[in-house]
Design brief:
2 domains, 5-stranded parallel sheet, carbohydrate derivative binding, Rossmann fold, alpha/beta, 47% helix, 16 helices, binds 5-phosphoarabinonic acid, 5-stranded mixed sheet
């Protein structure tokens, strides 16, 4: 079994961080009745089947199908390109960044590429280095009509057919809605292998559907471990006792900081490069789910809390000055790793120079951990709240545990605030106007 993530919220409390941002026990106890209602609401909606993301980790048959398909593909192709954007790219890319280079990862297979954006220079450069004979394209779009993904697909489809003739379809696999959309239609018309994204699971909650699991399997990641960690989080996340439920505690703390203390920004700051993709994934989840003009009652609320990302220790030399001395409007969510899997000893090569010799004998792991603790302590002394998610190791189980915890936190925050976290009306207008600009 893998390792679980543990959370520490102590540095959010008034008794530790003090004024002006510390949260009081009264603030928590005052919010408990509303939090309890939010919990009951989620449990009822889950029971009715309206929140299927909770139950995704337990579907062994999909995992088996994905593993069977990917075993064959991993032998056959040298490169796999994931064509998707937003929730159809951030999650799978984050998994690859976190776990793709783990020493316990399966034997080497194809290289994965996530172009994501429609940057012409980058996309052309990627197509320029690929040998289409040995490349598989996984086209991922729930709606089947997202402009960026459709455009990339059309470019790729033409080049594949030009080079491979009718064999082009062997180089495509679609991940899309089980019934609706243009991609689903093409799949049946052109006989292209397709995996379904469960109905009722939107882009940013789809990491445990084939959207995330297929690229994970193609990259040789431990898909079963990922699902086991997420299943554990789904179990833990249904505990109605807020203090024993890290997802609820995380969400409630951020909502109270926002509404009672004016904390409009949450910065996710891993002290581990492999976890930076998790911060990208979280930014979309928290921003797109909770940044809303209208609440469930139809009242204008303009709610939102801006999720940012920073990298420790790198951003100690960039952003931390602002976090320490700028406006009192931020909370930091540190991601700390206990065991990085490898370590590097700093040598003692200048015994006669005490300032240099001081570092010798320590390791990079000790250094990055000391830097995290020092920054946390400095922020605390400056009255700046923070919390920590501690990963014993960056493995599939801990990553699955972490992802599901934050998905539950997001729907809980939505319910607590009376916001629909599953829609994104604010992105529609841009799509309509893009099409208008290209027409005629
Ligand atoms: O979370 C969401 O719903 C969005 O970010 C979508 O994932 C994104 O717009 C891509 O949509 P689709 O998968 O339909 O191409």
């Amino acid at each position: 079994m893998g390792t679980k993530v543990s959370w520490n919220f102590d540095n959010l409390l008034m008794g530790n961080v003090g004024k002006p941002l510390g949260l009081t026990e009264e603030a928590f106890s005052g919010a408990l009745p509303q939090a309890q209602r939010a919990h009951e609401d989620l449990m009822q909606r889950r029971e009715r089947g309206d929140l299927p993301f909770y139950d995704l980790p337990k579907r062994g048959e999909i995992v088996a199908e994905i593993l069977e398909y990917s075993a064959e593909v991993r032998r056959r192709f040298t490169d796999v390109v994931i064509l998707g954007i937003g929730g159809s790219s951030l999650g799978p890319a984050a998994l690859q960044t976190a776990l793709g280079r783990n020493p316990d990862n399966a034997e080497s297979g194809p290289a994965l590429h996530f172009p994501d954006n429609v940057d012409p220079f980058e996309f052309d450069a990627l197509l320029g280095i690929l040998d289409l004979e040995n490349t598989l394209f996984n086209v991922v779009t729930k709606s089947g009509g997202t402009p960026e993904t459709v455009a990339q697909y059309l470019i790729v489809r033409e080049r594949l057919e030009h080079k491979l003739g009718d064999r082009y379809r062997e180089h495509l696999v679609f991940t899309t809605d089980p019934q609706k959309g243009q991609l689903r239609q093409l799949a049946s018309e052109e006989d292209i292998r397709t995996f379904s994204i469960d109905s009722g699971v939107g882009g940013r909650f789809s990491i445990l559907t084939p959207v995330g699991l297929l690229p994970a399997a193609l990259g040789g990641l431990d898909v079963k471990g990922l699902c086991e960690g997420a299943a554990f989080a789904a179990e833990e996340g249904t505990n109605g006792n807020i203090s024993d439920n890290p997802a609820y505690r995380f969400a409630l703390s951020l909502c109270l900081l926002r509404d009672n203390r004016g904390v409009g920004t949450v910065v996710m700051m891993p002290y581990c490069n492999r976890l930076l993709g998790m911060a990208d994934w979280f930014r979309q989840l928290w921003a797109e789910s909770l940044g809303k003009k209208i609440d469930l009652a139809g009242e204008e609320i303009f709610w939102g809390q801006t999720p940012e990302k920073a990298l420790g220790a790198t951003d100690q030399h960039s952003m931390v000055q602002l976090y320490m001395e700028g406006p009192f409007d931020k909370v930091i969510c540190f991601l700390e790793v206990e065991d990085h899997g490898v370590d590097v000893v700093i040598p003692r090569i200048y015994p006669q120079k005490p300032d240099l010799n001081f570092w010798g004998g320590h390791t990079l792991s000790e250094l990055i951990t000391a830097e995290k603790h020092a920054t946390e302590e400095a922020l605390l002394q400056a009255g700046r709240p923070s919390m920590t998610a501690l990963f014993p190791r960056v493995d599939a189980y801990s990553v699955g545990h972490f992802l599901m915890t934050l998905e539950i936190a997001t729907v809980f925050a939505g319910s607590f605030l009376g916001i629909n976290p599953l829609d994104q009306p604010g992105v529609e207008l841009g799509k309509v106007l893009t099409k208008k600009r290209l027409s005629g």
